[in-house]
Design goal:
The structure holds two protein chains of two kinds. By secondary structure, chain A is α+β, with helices and mostly antiparallel strands. Chain A is 13% helix and 26% strand. In chain A, strands 1-4 form a two-stranded antiparallel ribbon. In chain A, strands 2-3 form a two-stranded antiparallel sheet. The radius of gyration of chain A is 13 Å and the shape is elongated. By secondary structure, chain B is α+β, with helices and mostly antiparallel strands. Chain B is built from ten helices and eleven strands. A seven-stranded mixed sheet of chain B has the order 4-2-3-6-5-1-7, with helices on both faces. The chains are: A alpha+beta, B alpha+beta. Chains A and B meet through β2 of A and α3, α6 and α9 of B.
Chain lengths: 76, 273
């Protein structure tokens, strides 16, 4: 089993950075609005979270490319 | 033919029926659905796809039940089908307005709004014009001339992107997408999670062996791993069970060796959607 923990304090914006999203060949992670969308407003606060964990190989490339050290992958 | 052709196409291709694009279907219920769809797409994806993903590793029997329930919901609301470029062109010929917009899958999986691979279709002038209140999705909308829309879609075809049509509350066809296995959530759902949210095309590809020179250019474009190469014969094979009938392999074949056949005319494929 693989677990991916995201430190939401350290991850500033999945839109401006995108490094983990682009590095993951399997497409395990998703970019999502950290607060629900409101009519008339652009979403400014974008986080990262695992979506397709069953596709994760545990390779830790996301952990390695994260400039904030916000991602921790553990393989049990 | 696929079940939508029977239910919504009167035995013909459902996505080429003008009634499935009609203004009559663009009612208040659909407008609300579309607004909600774009407001909450990430939440929906987390519930449906993320929920299935968790069950795949923890409870396979429950995962199978989840697959069925999500598929049935999606058949009612937002289901798709692969279509080849010639059918794309027929749809554009029926359309009055084509709007290019950000791809929701690439927003979720790649974190980008500038990947504008999706096209909204109208065969009528909506009055009043629909207002989508979420600028995440409307910031870069472009209304294309029909000529530019055709050129953009032909370019996607040459680059090996798979054209798909999607309902917004079935059977209303509202969106035309250009998908790949690496970027698109729907393809991951189908190919990796076993969750069917679109039908294969009404077609299947076939290689004329007399014309195939074994160059393997077609293999590079296939998103479904349907093409293999025989070094001993120096020819390519198409596994028709793997083939989704998108037809993008044809564009790179310098000998025009690949054609699309009617899936429904091949006994063991006629029920393989």
């Amino acid at each position: 089993m693989v677990q991916i923990e995201i430190d939401q304090e350290k991850c500033k914006s999945s839109r401006e950075c995108r490094k983990c999203l682009e590095a993951c060949a399997e497409g395990v992670l998703m970019s999502y609005p950290r607060v629900p969308r409101e009519p008339g407003k652009r979403t400014e606060d974008w986080g990262i979270r695992p979506l397709l964990l069953s596709l994760c190989t545990g390779c830790k490339v996301c952990e390695e490319v994260c400039p904030q050290g916000a991602i921790a992958v553990t393989v049990a | 033919m696929c079940e939508f052709c029977i239910q919504h196409g009167e035995g013909k291709k459902w996505y080429l029926q003008a009634k499935n694009y009609s203004e009559e279907l663009f009612n208040e219920e659909r407008k609300r659905y579309i607004a909600e769809f774009f407001a909450k797409i990430e939440e929906t994806v987390l519930d449906d796809i993320g929920g299935l993903d968790r069950l795949i590793t923890t409870d396979p029997a429950a995962a199978e039940i989840k697959r069925r329930s999500v598929m049935e919901k999606r058949k009612r609301e937002h289901y798709g089908q692969v279509i080849p470029i010639e059918d794309v062109e027929q749809i554009l010929d029926m359309s009055l307005i084509v709007v290019r917009m950000p791809c929701a899958c690439r927003s979720i999986l790649k974190g980008r709004f500038d990947a504008r691979y999706c096209f909204g279709l109208f065969t009528f002038q909506p009055d009043p014009a629909p207002t989508l209140e979420y600028p995440d999705w409307t910031r870069d909308l472009e209304v294309l001339t029909m000529e530019d829309a055709k050129k953009a879609l032909q370019k996607h075809d040459r680059n090996g992107l798979v054209h798909t049509v999607w309902t917004l509350i079935t059977p209303f066809v509202g969106v035309l997408c250009n998908c790949t296995a690496s970027d698109c959530l729907e393809f991951k759902n189908r190919l990796r999670l076993g969750l069917r949210q679109f039908f294969k095309a009404e077609y299947v590809a076939s290689i004329d062996w007399e014309s195939c020179n074994g160059c393997r250019d077609c293999m590079k474009l296939c998103n479904f791993g349907a093409i293999s190469y025989s070094p001993s014969l120096q020819k390519c094979y198409i596994d028709k069970f793997q083939c989704f009938g998108c037809g993008v392999c044809r564009a790179v074949c310098s000998n025009d060796a690949i054609t699309l056949q009617d899936r429904n005319a091949i006994p063991m494929l006629a029920k393989d959607w």
